[in-house]
Amino acid sequence: MKKPALRRSAVLLAVLPLAGCISFGAKPPSTLLTLSPTATVPVGQDQSSATAKAIVVTVPVVPAALAVARVPVRTSATSLAYVKDAQWSEPPARLFARLMSDTLAAKTGRVVVSQVQAVGESNDQLDGELRNFGLDATAREAVVTFDASLSRTGTPTTEKRRFEARVPVPAIDAASVGPAINQAANQVAGEVADWVGR
């Protein structure tokens, strides 16, 4: 009777040291990063495609390095790392598309509609590729590069333009990356809005 009890105790004692090593999921970061637009439509302001031009803003295409929630750091021309403990609240492409939509609506007066809402109507469409959305360690800068592609209603051609913003970062750490990338993203969104709005 005593031996089975001793064996159980020995097994429990052997397992206890492993409890601190076992993880059933990735440890979440203490904070998640997001983007905040510097230009927004006032609360309560009506918008109508009957009185203003409408535009569809699609979620941009991204390279594999930006298809994750982590913040990439270019350490050389051919290598990447990620900022420790820094993570976006959702995929960067969706955050950037929402920021772009808010900025376009605020700066141009355009009505931003989804692709579902745009069915059956003639609308301009903004597509593109988000090529950089992270840090350049060699220059100590946040870098946002967006290759925009604009199809305007009534024209058979497509316009393309590259936009880029660089903002200095005091350090390559989780506390510094969010504000710097947010500033760079807002600068790019503002320049795109000026281009689209003409």
Quick synopsis:
The protein has 198 residues and is α/β, with parallel strands linked by helices. It has helices at 2-19, 92-108, 174-197; strands at residues 54-57, 70-76, 79-87, 111-113, 124-136, 141-151, 158-168.
Counting structural domains, the number is: 1
Strand-residue proportion: 25-35%
> Alpha-carbon distance between the termini?
88 Å
Determine the structural class based on helices, strands and strand pairing.
alpha/beta
- Count of separate DSSP helical elements: 3
**Main β-sheet, in a few words?**
7 strands, mixed
Helix content: 25-40%
**What top-tier CATH class fits best?**
Alpha Beta
What is the overall pLDDT average?
A: 84
Gyration radius, in Å: 23 Å
**What order do the SSEs take from the amino end to the carboxyl end, as H and E?**
HEEEHEEEEH
Overall strand count: 7
- Residue runs with pLDDT of under 50 for 5 or more positions: 18-25
Stated plainly, the CATH topology is called: Rossmann fold
Which CATH architecture would you pick? Answer: 3-Layer(aba) Sandwich
CATH superfamily: ABC-type transport auxiliary lipoprotein component
User: Quick one: overall form?
Assistant: globular
Describe this structure in words.
The protein is 30% helix and 29% strand. The chain has one domain (52-197): 3-Layer(aba) Sandwich (Rossmann fold), CATH 3.40.50.10610. Strands 1, 2, 3, 4, 5, 6 and 7 form a seven-stranded mixed sheet that branches. It has helices spanning 2-19, 92-108, 174-197; strands at 54-57, 70-76, 79-87, 111-113, 124-136, 141-151, 158-168. 29% of the residues are buried. The longest helix has 24 residues, at 174-197. The chain is of the alpha/beta class. This is ABC-type transport auxiliary lipoprotein family protein. Keywords: Lipoprotein.
